[in-house]
Design brief:
Blueprint lengths: L3 H6 L2 H7 L4 H13 L1 H21 L4 H17 L18 H63 L4 E7 L8 E6 L4 E5 L10 E10 L2 E9 L9 E5 L6 E8 L11 E6 L3
Helix pairs in contact: 3-4
């Protein structure tokens, strides 16, 4: 597994949210965020902080605009805007030069702060660039090793002479779909390969059922909610049941107590 805290501290997630990563890096980060809930929570936290910061720094110009408008109206009411000390009457008061200097200083300060922030951001980007690339490389290597380990485990299971292989054929709702169940009766373990199933729509999950046929009785074997269209798509489940068949249905997120037969995607009978 990758070091979640190190990945968060690297700044990769901030760059991901800012949209400065390459397309390949965006896909890599999206994949990791989908696999690790901690990263998803951190992404949401960063997005919320950015929204709050944007609201906090947004200037409220309404009061300033109203003050300027009133000043213009007062000057127009006098008929003439004074141009010299001789033309100035007690009713026509000029804005002190200090006020203009204060406004100018504030503007210059904002410009300086913005420039400094930009330069600091560029420096930080250069500093984290090497670390970010190294973390991404490490993550890719780690994921490749994990997938290799899973594949090796699957091959070990398939080499077991006592394993029962049950192909699950397509049903009317998805004529191209297929899946496989590899069941070890001795250990009560079953491995479900769902590579042949289409990616479930948002808010839906695949659910595996153990079936006895006479009478037809389904037993829930669990939801396959970590479906990964680019991964091994292999799930390990417990199956202490006297299964005569297996079926996979598409159910609402969280699963169902009974299978939705109208959403039956794959079905296979255990050979006697």
């Amino acid at each position: 597994m990758i070091d979640i805290q190190a990945y968060i501290d690297s700044g990769v997630l901030e760059l991901y949210i800012y949209g400065t990563l390459s397309e390949a890096e965006n896909l890599e980060v999206s994949r990791l965020v989908a696999l690790h809930p901690e990263l998803k929570v951190e992404v949401e936290r960063i997005e919320t902080a950015l929204q709050e910061l944007s609201s906090a720094v947004a200037p409220d110009t309404s009061s300033n605009f109203e003050a300027i408008q009133k000043r213009i109206q007062m000057q127009e009411g006098d008929g003439v805007i004074p141009l010299s000390r001789k033309q100035t009457s007690p009713e026509n008061k000029r804005v002190p030069i200090a006020a203009y200097l204060g406004w100018a200083a504030a503007v210059l300060l904002l410009v300086a702060v913005g420039y400094q922030y930009t330069e600091n951001q560029k420096l930080e980007d250069r500093i984290v660039n090497t670390e970010r690339e190294q973390i991404l490389r490490d993550a890719r290597v780690q994921m490749a090793e994990e997938e290799l380990q899973i594949t090796t485990q699957l091959l070990d299971v398939l080499r077991n002479k006592d394993i029962i292989s049950v192909p699950l054929g397509a049903q009317a709702i998805a004529p191209e779909a297929y899946a496989s169940v590899y069941w070890d009766k001795e250990t009560g373990k079953a491995y479900v390969d769902v590579r042949g199933l289409p990616t479930p729509p948002e808010g839906k999950v695949y659910q595996l059922w153990s079936l006895t046929l006479d009478p037809l009785t389904p037993t829930n074997m669990g939801i396959l909610d970590q479906y990964d269209p680019e991964g091994t798509q292999l799930f390990a489940v417990d199956n202490p049941n006297a299964s005569q068949a297996f079926g996979i249905t598409l159910e609402p997120a969280g699963g169902s107590d009974t299978p939705t037969l109208e959403q039956l995607y794959a079905l296979g009978v255990v050979e006697p």
